[in-house]
Structure formats: C-alpha cells, structure tokens
Amino acid sequence: MPVITFREALRQAMDEEMARDENVILLGEEVAQYNGAYKVSQGLLDKYGPGRVIDTPITEEGFTGIGIGAALAGLRPIVEFMTFNFSAMAFDQLLNNAAKMLYMSGGQLKVPVVFRGPNGPAEYLSSQHSQSFQAIYSHIPGLKVVAPSTPLDAKGLLKSAVRDDNPVIFLEAELMYAWKGEVPQGEVLVPLGRAGVKRQGQDITLVGFSKPMPLLLEAAEILAGQGFSAEVLDLRSLRPLDEQAVFASVRKTHRCLIVDESWPVASFGAYLGWLVTARCFDNLDAPVELVSLEDVPMPYNHTLELAAQPSTEKILAAAHRALYV
How many CB atoms neighbour CB 237 within 10 A? Predict the structure, then answer.
C-alpha cells in the first residue's frame, strides 16, 4: 500500500473530486499560483486552470461569502483558509449564511461547501495564530465538523465532505501536513459521523481527534507496559458525532479520558465529558478526565508553548487518576 503524506492525501482527494465533478472548485489565499500556503494544492492550477483554482485577496469575509454563494448556485466549492485563525474574519458568513440557509429556506437551498485549513497550535506562532476552533464551529447547528488524524482518513473524509450537501468545516493542523501513512490506491471514502477504534482495550477509553492522536497511542503503549489495557478511539468527526461508539467503549472499559487541543472552558472535550457522564453514569468507575490546552493565550516561548499543550505525560497522569494508580 502506498505511503504518502497528509498533504498529498488531501491533494489527491481534491484532485480526484475535481476530475469526477466539474462543479468542484477551489478558492482561497495562495491556492493557485503559489500551490497553497502549505503546498496542499500543488499542481491543481496547471491541471484545472484559473477558472477552477482561484487565488483570492486577503479578504476572508469576502471569499467565504463567494464560496457560499457559489454553493447556493450549484457549484461545490472548497474554500481554503490559510489558517482557521483567519476564519474569525468570516464568522458572520459561516454562522449566519452557510449554517442557516437550509433551515431558513425550509429545505429548498443546499449549501455544499467545504471550508478547510490548519487549526490549532503549531510551533512559534504565539497567541493569535495557535487557536483551536472545533468548539466554536461544533456549537453551530447546520455545520458539519471533521478533524482527521491520518492521511487515510484525511483523504476519505475530504472526499465525503466534498460530496456532502451541507457545509463542512474540515480541520487540519500545520504540523500534520508532513505526517505519513498508508493510503490505498483508488477510491477511498470514509463516512462522516463514524469514529475509528485505533487500539482495542479493556481498562480505560482514551478519546481524541486530530493532531493529539499520536499522544494517545503513545500513552496507551506506555500503559500497556504498566499492565493496563487502554482502548484508543479517534472521533474523526465531531459533528455528526459517533456517540454510540464512545458509549460502547466506555461501557466496556468503565473509565474515560478525553484529549482536546483547545481551552478547557466550554470546549468540545468538556461537552463530550458531560455526554459520557450523562449517558454512561452507571457504567463509570471513575470521573471522566479531560486533558486540554492550559487556560491561557498560547505563549511564544517554545518551552512555555509545549508546557501549555496536551502531552503524553499529562495524559498518563490523568489516566493514572482514573485508574487509581
């Protein structure tokens, strides 16, 4: 099976969908002549031309609105944010137009548009460019929110997102673009709303998504050496959320630890923790644990930056609390 990078998996997904459907277009800052800020759209301008791979000015509210309008008119746009930090400039478009048109039109207007780009902390980006937006967009009815952690899921989920008739927020991460993984040749589709079990276990459920997933797998391996069997669950899709997969795992292991690379207050992880507690209360042998970003703006200093984020050590400490070690 071919081993490719995360960015190549995303590029393959866009290339295949653009070849399959002439209504699929790509627009955003530097997606065309520069081949994408992170080279995800490498070669697509040469293949499909400036009518379908479109460089935009640095006007997030404007080109987000154009993407929504194009979707309403029958196209299937992929809108790239150079970083989801910049999507804050387009929040009114995402909240009040993309998310609500289907509802406000009584089902008459579909909005098949994908908004994709890096989300969350990378390195040396300081406070204004290290923010995680999963809680904000998962909060809004009408938006689907996807956060893959492997090249295989990135390709399969992006293709499914492009074919979906609803607006999809597709969260990547800057540090993930060079990650490598096996991706089979040919058609790869991963359905939205279905979690993936990355490791089977009996003693505790470790739940996460996106960039922190290798930390959960590393923690599970260390716990195995300590005599504990950890099940690792990759949500992949936050909205729709595969609640039953989470509940089934927790009812088997009786303990749950959630990792979310955003601030703890009103986070997606906090919501999931409430959900598990409410639905699996009689099955839990310990309180649900949450490992998150520290409740501070991201420092620029690299030592402090790393200290503020989830880590294997923090996950192990939380797992030991749940396991009463």
Answer: 26
